[in-house]
């Protein structure tokens, strides 16, 4: 590795914030590229650029700032028409945000054009090597070395493909590249190593994107490139080889997402739209899987491993962030309903633990994107140790979906807002179904009451959403607080953690989630007039204990905002503000208690003037460690 990465590089490497689009076909590529880049805006970026093969040469246009600035700059350029093009949104790593550093980058002869996501770790050595061989560079980026390196091999009279393979052998790091060779305008090249890239398959046209959401409205058929694969894409087909130049088979996966799901509609933000999709995503995840009257859960994705699952002695749930918190709810569900001991691990920690793997353990990865690097590494580790791996994944065909041996898709549709909301609800749905499925394997005969109530959850979510304006009013009251404490117990303990995470990431307010029983072991010292507590206290087996905790807060003058069950009069004596939710059974409470917390974070974030769809420093999928 060449020297240490600076902080900016590390942040972008960590979150892999840039976006790639590409097109080859019979249409003019410009509007397709611009729309694709707009669809990727949520990832966060500081500049954008395109390269289009037009009138026998490649024309490059770039600008700093939003994609619409680039679009406006190109409005009058009627001659910029071409059937092959690549585009990029850049989040600066090597070199400041500027037109010069924006992608695409080219070589000395302006034959090769490259856009890139990821980091080339040995770029300094390669740059020096190339400079010594007479190459001159325009930008400060690591990406530019790629075009020069290919050019260098072409000087040895190699054909383009051989030059590309030879260049890849010298590059160390994580990358996804889209490349145009202007001497061969019938092909678009795509290369992937640890950074996602997906080919959209059309009729007489094909697309390329770093994220399938950029393909929505264009095609539903996609091929996910695997690590170390090189795609040669023409308008009529796709051919894939690995780094050893062997042809590899490609599988076309059908995306269920549609255009409407990927647009904001009448909502001011994707986040609000996605919170309001809560009831639908539960229904989508249940569809065809639940027949409560027959006490039946059918999970086709697990059928192939059904026999093995019957022997499960222990479950390991591996996930990050919001998916991890869904996993914590899963832990309660699997232990209570399936009677299987369950542990939940941050995937980022699990990958470095010395885990004594036991036979008959099953690992479950939970991931909305299906591309989170830590979760993928954790699941690979489990697999390597002979453990059966399952996935609960939203993005069809994503790496985690492919690499787990079996699994269940969430079918929540694309989640565009960076903060995860609807995916959490769909994860809870799949976890509940899985818990019932595994309880059957364990010989339990009936979960009738649970399944009956699960079918009623979407309606109850709608009731809560119809009262969103109440949460908005309370957000107005609390919007200037600097700190917040979230408390819950049992099934609502993970919800407290998730509520605090949402507030942190969207409103930049310091918030801590805690198990209410732990209060007396430390956090109670912080309670005062200036620290409001969000108490998740529905009427259930533990609510009396929660009430005692709230008495302790009240005695210390701490303001309390409670989420409680309709008809609970006692809570109004204790709390300063109450938001009432419909009654449900305890294992399903998180479906209802999380919604006001998502709304609360949303309204506080917008009231504080932040772009809640693109919180600072965050990206939707964290594809590099
Ligand atoms: C929080 C959030 C993140 C993700 C985490 C895992 O709102 O979005 O914490 O939940 O990065 O992502 P996936 O589920 O894609 O593996």
Structure commentary:
This protein is α/β, with parallel strands linked by helices and 625 residues long. It folds into three domains: 7-255, 4-Layer Sandwich (Glutamine Phosphoribosylpyrophosphate, subunit 1, domain 1); 258-455, Glucose-6-phosphate isomerase like protein, domain 1 (Rossmann fold, 3-Layer(aba) Sandwich), CATH 3.40.50; 468-610, Rossmann fold (3-Layer(aba) Sandwich). The chain has an eight-stranded antiparallel β-sheet with strand order 3-2-4-1-10-9-11-14, covered by helices on one side. Strands 5-6-7-8-12-13 form a six-stranded antiparallel β-sheet. Strands 18-17-19-20-21 form a five-stranded parallel β-sheet, with helices on both faces. The longest helix has 20 residues, at 422-441. The chain starts with 6 loop residues before the first helix and ends in an 18-residue tail after the last helix. The model is unreliable at 1-15 (pLDDT under 50). Bound molecules: fructose -6-phosphate (F6R). Fructose -6-phosphate (F6R) binds at residues 320-323, 367-369, 372, 375, 419-420, 501, 505, 621-622.
Give a concise summary.
With 625 residues, the protein is α/β, with parallel strands linked by helices. It contains 20 helices and 26 strands.
Write the layout of secondary structure elements.
Layout (H helix, E strand, L loop, with lengths): L6 H9 L3 E6 L4 H11 L7 E8 L2 E8 L2 H8 L9 E7 L14 E2 L5 E9 L2 H10 L11 H12 L4 H11 L2 E9 L6 E6 L4 E4 L4 E4 L11 E4 L4 E5 L4 E5 L10 E2 L15 H7 L1 H9 L3 E2 L4 E2 L8 H4 L4 E6 L1 H18 L3 E5 H4 L10 E7 L5 H12 L3 E6 L5 H5 L2 E4 L12 H20 L6 H18 L2 H11 L4 E6 L3 H16 L2 E6 L17 E4 L6 H13 L4 E6 L4 H5 L2 E5 L7 H19 L18
Parallel strand pairs: 17-18, 17-19, 19-20, 20-21, 22-23, 22-24, 24-25, 25-26
Antiparallel strand pairs: 1-4, 1-10, 2-3, 2-4, 5-6, 6-7, 7-8, 8-12, 9-10, 9-11, 11-14, 12-13, 15-16
The structure holds fructose -6-phosphate (F6R).
């Amino acid at each position: 590795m060449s020297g240490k990465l600076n902080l900016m590089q590390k942040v972008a490497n960590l979150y892999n914030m840039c976006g790639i689009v590409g097109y080859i076909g019979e249409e003019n590529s410009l509007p397709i590229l611009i729309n694709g880049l707009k669809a990727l805006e949520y990832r966060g970026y500081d500049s954008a650029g395109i390269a289009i093969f037009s009138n026998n040469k490649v024309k490059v246009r770039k600008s700093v700032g939003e994609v619409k600035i680039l679009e406006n700059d190109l409005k009058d350029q009627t001659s910029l028409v071409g059937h092959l093009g690549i585009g990029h949104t850049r989040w600066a790593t090597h070199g400041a945000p500027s037109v010069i550093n924006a992608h695409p980058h080219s070589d000395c002869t302006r034959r090769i054009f490259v856009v890139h996501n990821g980091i080339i770790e040995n770029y300094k050595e390669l740059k020096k090597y190339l400079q010594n061989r007479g190459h001159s560079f325009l930008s400060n980026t690591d990406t530019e070395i790629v075009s020069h390196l290919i050019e260098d091999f072409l000087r040895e009279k190699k054909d383009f493909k051989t030059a590309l393979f030879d260049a890849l052998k010298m590059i160390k790091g994580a990358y996804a590249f889209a490349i145009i060779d202007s001497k061969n305008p019938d092909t678009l090249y795509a290369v992937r190593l640890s950074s996602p890239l997906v080919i959209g398959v059309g009729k007489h046209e094909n697309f390329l994107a770093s994220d399938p959401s950029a393909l929505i409205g264009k095609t539903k058929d996609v091929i996910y490139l695997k690590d170390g694969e090189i795609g040669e894409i023409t308008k009529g087909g796709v051919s894939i080889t690995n780094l050893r130049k062997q042809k590899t088979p490609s599988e076309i996966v059908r995306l269920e997402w549609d255009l409407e799901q990927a647009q904001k509609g009448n909502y001011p933000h994707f986040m609000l739209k996605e919170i309001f999709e809560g009831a639908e995503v539960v229904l989508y995840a249940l569809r065809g899987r639940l027949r409560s009257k027959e006490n039946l859960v059918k999970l086709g994705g697990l059928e192939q491993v059904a026999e093995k699952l019957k022997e499960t002695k222990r479950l390991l749930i591996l996930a990050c962030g919001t998916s991890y918190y869904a996993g914590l709810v899963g832990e309660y569900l699997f232990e209570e309903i399936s009677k299987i001991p369950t542990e939940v691990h941050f995937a980022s920690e699990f990958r470095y633990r010395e885990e004594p793997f036991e036979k008959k353990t099953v690992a479950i990865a939970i991931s909305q994107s299906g591309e989170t690097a830590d979760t993928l590494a954790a699941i690979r580790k489990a697999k390597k140790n002979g453990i059966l791996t399952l996935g609960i994944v939203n993005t069809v065909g994503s790496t985690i979906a492919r690499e787990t041996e079996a699994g269940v898709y969430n079918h929540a549709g694309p989640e565009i807002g960076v903060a995860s909301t609807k995916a959490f609800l769909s994860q809870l749905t799949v976890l509940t179904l899985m818990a019932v499925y595994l309880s059957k394997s364990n010989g339990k005969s009936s979960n009738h009451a649970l399944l009956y109530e699960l079918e009623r959850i979407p309606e109850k979510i709608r009731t809560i959403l119809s009262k969103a304006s109440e949460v908005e009013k309370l957000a107005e009251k609390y919007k200037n607080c600097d700190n917040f404490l979230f408390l819950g117990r049992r099934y609502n303990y993970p919800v407290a953690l998730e509520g605090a995470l949402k507030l942190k990431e969207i409103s930049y307010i310091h918030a801590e989630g805690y198990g209410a029983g732990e209060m007396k072991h430390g956090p109670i010292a912080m309670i005062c007039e200036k620290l409001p507590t969000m108490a998740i206290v529905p009427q259930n087996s533990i609510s009396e204990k929660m009430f005692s905790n709230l008495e302790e807060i009240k005695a210390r003058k701490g303001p309390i905002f409670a989420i409680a069950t309709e008809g609970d009069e006692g809570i109004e004596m204790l709390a300063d503000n109450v938001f009432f939710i419909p009654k449900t059974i305890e294992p399903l409470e998180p479906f209802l208690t999380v919604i006001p917390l998502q709304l609360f974070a949303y309204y506080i974030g917008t009231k504080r003037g932040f772009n809640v769809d693109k919180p600072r420093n965050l990206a939707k999928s964290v594809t590099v460690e």
